[in-house]
Amino acid sequence: VGVRRARAGLVVRVLLSWLACACERPAVETPTYADRADASSAAGGAAQAGAAPRDASARPTSPSDAGGEGGSGIREAAVADAGAAAVDGAASSGDAGQAPPLAAATRGATLPYLEYEAELAETNGVILAPSRSFGQVAAESSGRSAVRLERTGQYIRFTTERSSNAIVVRYVIPDAPTGGGLEATLGVYVNGARKQSLTLTSRYAWLYGGESASDNNVPGAGAHHFYDEVHASIGEVPAGAVVTLQKDAIDQADYYVIDLIDLEQVPPAIEKPADALSITDFGATADDGGDDAAAIQRAIDAAKQQKRSVWIPRGEFSLPGTPLQCAGVTLRGAGMWHTILSGAAAQLKVSGNDNQFYDFALFGAVTARHDNIAENALDGPAGTGSRLENVWIEHYKVGWWVGKGAFPGVPSAPLTDGLVIRGARIRNTFADGINLCNGTSRTIVEQSQFRGTGDDALASWAPAADGPQAEHNTFRFNTVQMPWRANCFAVYGGSDMQIQDNVCADPLLYPGILISTTFTPHPFAGTTTIERNTLIRAGGPMYAQQHGALKIFADTADIANVHVQDLLIESPTFSGIHFQGPKLASGIVLDNVEIRQPGTVGIVVNSNALGGAQASRVIVTGSQGLQNDAPSRFTIEKLAGNGGW
Ligand SMILES: [Ca+2]
Ligand SMILES: [Ca+2]
To answer: Does 12 have pLDDT greater than 60?
Structure first.
């Protein structure tokens, strides 16, 4: 029982690190982001693999743990969103290899892996001091900390909580002196034996020129975007195994920064549906490096004619120069770990209706952002009846730009209506994860995970000059980590948009949720609903502004009727909630909002803000509650149950 509880305790700590447990933080902090003591308190959390476990019951579930009154509902939800359900499962799981399925997350995506923060593992490496300063590796890290392995024999080590057969490591290795990246190995040990070498590259990382530059690979000042990820199958690793990442003599990078490790039990490959047309019958060959684009396109065209689906079997298929044209076609793979389309043109150009994409990976080759090129994994409108499910996307400009594609002129009706995106895993892009643009309506993105996007992870944008009003888009049950520019969730105009049941952690420069009229959209209409979300260490410095974790920004037009309910804002870099003008904000309702340990103040109203908001059950702890710099222009009406301001 002791061993089991110890293992559970480690994972509890790992998962709780998302929550930036306020109880571990100093009571008084400086109001600047740069040198704040941070969430997963590296000094406190490190090298404790053998320390007394933190029992799951230590989770801050009772209202008294967080102080204040009311709001216990969001506290419980907030605990669950960080994976407490999974922790409970692990703690009661019994013997190795018998772990039950991971329970559904209350907020955020239910993900098929456990995440281990390097800075909470046992290590003899260098734990990076927490930072929120642009240009520092720690600031781009999950939990705002990581571990640097500098010398031969340095490692991170942890005990696995569940059985697994695949690993993802988020890492930094140096760039080549002249740019372009370099490769180096890193050892994976299981129970003390070097089991295999991971091959890491910095080809897709390292940009220069400061916060606004995302297209400069020439080494110089303003380095940022340090991270990339590697994934590998590692054979069966039982629960309770000791997994070590170690720099040995053969591992030649000058240093390795490890941020986090995901361990996943990948299911067996999916079987081919009987009536699907296999691309291998049209000339595609897996794993030979030869160009498969023409063969896959032949399969797509034949399948469309025969009203059948296209089967992409297990293996890696290469698309070096020609993207695939998809209009009214279903592509099915053997699973996101099993079927890979890779290369500079591993892109799906989408048009027409009934486009369906299931169970494969798209691994591109984009190394910088070029706004004049649609280097997107998927690009174009989905029509009606379309789905994207269980697709893994890395190294593009955008995951899916759901926009006009090749449509000429200005659309007068939505080109995408009712698209469903589910189970996507979109990482390490140079711009948005998913952008619903040009009138996209009634589209849902859910149960998806985004990490390291170079612009908004999820955006809904209704540009007035380039499409009809957008309506009823929903982002729900998604987990977003470490966008290195822009927001976790952004809505630029539109009617009746909804952001529900999500988790956002560690955006570097911008809010967690932005409601904005930037980019001259159609006006907000109906009600914009933001409910049951958690924003962790959100907000940041960009364009010489201190963006709050939730920002309502009426810059080019008025914003009316935004309802915010059941929101937890944990350790925002600056303010928790941020109002900025100069246009009118009206009908803004805040209900049951908790802002813990803001870097500056709980709620900030810029001097050009206009309008007002109603607040009930809004609790601020750990800092000044309200700073209203527009007292004659903006009024917050305090209803019942507020505290701390
Ligand atoms: Ca980390
Ligand atoms: Ca091939």
So the answer is: no
CA pair distance 474, 44, nearest whole angstrom = 39
> How much is the pLDDT for 479?
98
Q: Which ligand is nearest to the CA of 119?
A: 1
Residue 559 CA to ligand 2 center (angstroms) comes to: 51
Distance 343 CA to ligand 1 centre (A): 29
Q: pLDDT digit string (tens) for 231-288?
A: 999 999 999 999 999 999 999 999 999 999 999 999 999 999 999 999 999 999 999 9
Q: Cα angle at 66 between 64 and 67, to 5 degrees?
A: 60
Could you tell me the pLDDT band of residue 131, with boundaries at 50, 70 and 90?
Answer: very high
DSSP letter at 79 equals H
Q: Which residues surround ligand 2, an ion (CB under 5 A)?
A: 285, 288, 290, 292, 318
Q: Which ligand is nearest to the CA of 289?
A: 2
CA of 265 to the centre of ligand 2 (A): 27
Ligand nearest to the CA of 481: 1
How far, in Å, is the centroid of ligand 1 from the Cα of 311?
A: 38
Are 459 and 499 spatial neighbours (Cβ–Cβ below 8 Å)?
A: no
- C-alpha 144 – ligand 1 centre gap (Å): 6
Asked if residue 219 has a cis previous peptide bond (ω within 30° of 0), the answer is no
Predicted local distance difference test score (pLDDT) of residue 104:
83
CA of 43 to the centre of ligand 1 (A): 13
Task: For residue 131, give Cα distances in angstroms to 117, 145, 183.
Answer: 16, 7, 27
Ligand nearest to the CA of 143: 1
Rounded to 5 degrees, φ, ψ at 406 are -90, 5
CA of 314 to the centre of ligand 2 (A): 12
pLDDT value for 101 = 67
154 CA to middle of ligand 2, Å? 39
Q: How far is the CA of 444 from the centre of ligand 1 (A)?
A: 30
Q: Can you tell me the mean pLDDT for 547-553?
A: 98
Least confident range from 76-80, 159-163, 474-478: namely: 76-80
DSSP string, 225-251: ---EEEEEEEEEE-TT-EEEEE--TT-
Taking the CA of 121 as reference, the closest ligand is 1
Distance 377 CA to ligand 1 centre (A): 27
Q: How do residues 488-521 score in pLDDT, each as one tens digit?
A: 999 999 999 999 999 999 999 999 999 999 999 9
- Specify the amino acid at residue 285: T
Task: Report the DSSP beta bridge partners of residue 187.
Answer: 197, 246
How many helices (H) does the chain have, and how many strands (E)? 6, 49
For residue 7, the SS3 value is helix
Closest ligand to residue 537's CA: 1
- CA angle, corner 427, sides to 38 and 530, nearest 5? 65
The alpha carbon of 211 and the centre of ligand 2 are apart by a number of angstroms equal to 39
Q: Write the DSSP string, 468-527.
A: PPPB--EEES-EEE--SSS-SEEEESEES-EEES-EEE--SSS-SEEEE-TT-BSPEES-
DSSP-based three-state secondary structure for 8: helix
Alpha-carbon gap, residue 111 to 82, rounded angstroms: 11
Ligand 1 center to residue 477 CA distance, Å? 22
**Closest listed ligand to the CA of 18:** 1
Task: Calculate ∠ Cα 99-102-108, nearest 5°.
Answer: 160
Cβ proximity of 395 and 366 under 8 Å:
yes
Relative to the alpha carbon of 137, which ligand is closest?
Answer: 1
